[in-house]
């Protein structure tokens, strides 16, 4: 699930009776921008651990999450509780993902702000309210904690609205839902049980990241790049979206020199992301044009000259089509 973030209706009624809206986010005197930044800060500065349940597209998965902060150092452990066993360990932006059955470990640099319960993308708090209106919905309880509930209502049809539950004392995001254009939930992420203020145990994360004996260690090669430098251009972007990252990486995780590369560009409106992938067309792997929807995530795939283009994100399908129409190969 890319972004984790929901319209008031039957789904809200099932969560209990809300208090008057004026008693929610505004009760503590927080402005909309301050509310967002407080929630973002809590994701990185609070110590917590719990079980996160993600549902969407008819699938449900759960993970065990622990986050520790000591000074300006952040540590995290994420363990999948369903499907193929795998664990992710993070120290700041260094992420190590381990598949014990395959004895494979992948080590890479990753932006921790893209992970739940982080909310904003980079400096998104400075502009996200240009594209979303924050409305207070009242109060609820999630995983035993009192929570303020707000709606980030999209100001246009280019993006989805999102509903958020944040713990009243700390601002930590406890639950989020993405709403379709018809106001119905498409996917959700929520803590089913949670402890805030736990004792930090960074040594557990550091020790696990050192235990790689017997594992095949992969370090994907990533090179900074630009669309223009690779012979592409986007003639225009949907309103609010800006490029936040562009790089080339080998399709072989070991970075073999003969392996083809994929160009990835990431765009954000401060809250949600759209990823654009361009790779050489391979008849054996790439078939006809495809459109896929899973929960809130839409994906468009198709051939463009001698290349295969994939565009995906937690946005309406028409938004992805606007990206596809704007992408041009330089002649």
Which key terms come to mind for this protein?
single chain; mainly beta; 21 strands; 45% strand; disordered N terminus
Mind explaining what this structure looks like?
- This protein is mostly beta strands and 331 residues long.
- It has helices at 10-13, 32-45, 202-210, 317-326; strands at 48-56, 59-70, 73-80, 87-91, 94-99, 104-109, 132-142, 145-154, 161-167, 173-179, 185-196, 216-218, 222-224, 232-234, 242-250, 261-268, 273-280, 290-294, 297-304, 307-313, 327-329.
- A twelve-stranded mixed beta sheet has the order 7-8-9-10-11-1-2-3-4-5-6-12. The protein has a seven-stranded antiparallel beta sheet with strand order 13-15-16-17-20-19-18, covered by helices on one side. It has a two-stranded antiparallel ribbon with strand order 14-21.
- A hairpin with a 4-residue loop joins β5 (94-99) and β6.
Question: In terms of topology, how is this protein built?
Answer:
Blueprint: H1 10-13, H2 32-45, E1 48-56, E2 59-70, E3 73-80, E4 87-91, E5 94-99, E6 104-109, E7 132-142, E8 145-154, E9 161-167, E10 173-179, E11 185-196, H3 202-210, E12 216-218, E13 222-224, E14 232-234, E15 242-250, E16 261-268, E17 273-280, E18 290-294, E19 297-304, E20 307-313, H4 317-326, E21 327-329
Parallel strand pairs: 6-12
Antiparallel strand pairs: 1-2, 1-11, 2-3, 3-4, 4-5, 5-6, 7-8, 8-9, 9-10, 10-11, 13-15, 14-21, 15-16, 16-17, 17-20, 18-19, 19-20
């Amino acid at each position: 699930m890319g972004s984790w973030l929901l319209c008031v209706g039957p789904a809200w009624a099932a969560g209990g009776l809300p208090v008057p809206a004026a008693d929610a986010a505004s009760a503590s005197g927080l402005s909309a921008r301050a509310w967002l930044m407080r929630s973002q800060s809590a994701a990185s500065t609070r110590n917590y651990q719990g079980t996160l349940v993600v549902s969407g597209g008819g699938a449900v998965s759960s993970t065990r999450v622990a986050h520790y902060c000591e000074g300006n150092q952040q540590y995290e452990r994420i363990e999948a509780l369903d499907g193929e066993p795998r664990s992710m360990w993070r120290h700041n932006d260094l992420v190590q993902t381990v598949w014990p059955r395959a004895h494979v470990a992948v080590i890479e640099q990753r932006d921790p702000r893209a992970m739940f319960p982080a909310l904003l993308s980079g400096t998104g708090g400075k502009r996200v309210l240009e594209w979303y209106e924050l409305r207070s919905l009242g109060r609820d309880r999630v995983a035993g904690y009192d929570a303020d509930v707000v709606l980030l209502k999209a100001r246009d049809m280019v993006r989805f609205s999102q509903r958020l539950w944040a713990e009243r004392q700390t601002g930590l995001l406890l639950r989020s839902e993405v709403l379709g254009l018809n106001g119905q939930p498409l996917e959700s992420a929520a803590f089913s049980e949670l402890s805030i203020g736990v004792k930090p145990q960074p040594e557990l994360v550091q020790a696990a990241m050192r235990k790689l004996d017997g594992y095949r260690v992969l370090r994907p090669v990533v090179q900074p790049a630009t669309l223009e430098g690779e012979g592409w251009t986007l003639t225009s972007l949907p309103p609010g979206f800006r490029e936040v990252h562009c790089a080339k990486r080998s399709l072989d995780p070991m970075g073999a020199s003969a392996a083809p590369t994929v160009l990835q560009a990431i765009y954000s409106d401060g809250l949600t992301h759209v990823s654009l992938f361009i790779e050489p067309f391979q008849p054996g792997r790439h078939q006809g044009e495809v459109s896929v929807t899973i929960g809130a995530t839409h994906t468009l795939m198709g051939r463009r000259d001698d290349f295969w283009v994939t565009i995906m994100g937690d946005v309406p399908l028409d938004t992805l089509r606007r990206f596809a129409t704007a992408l041009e190969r330089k002649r």
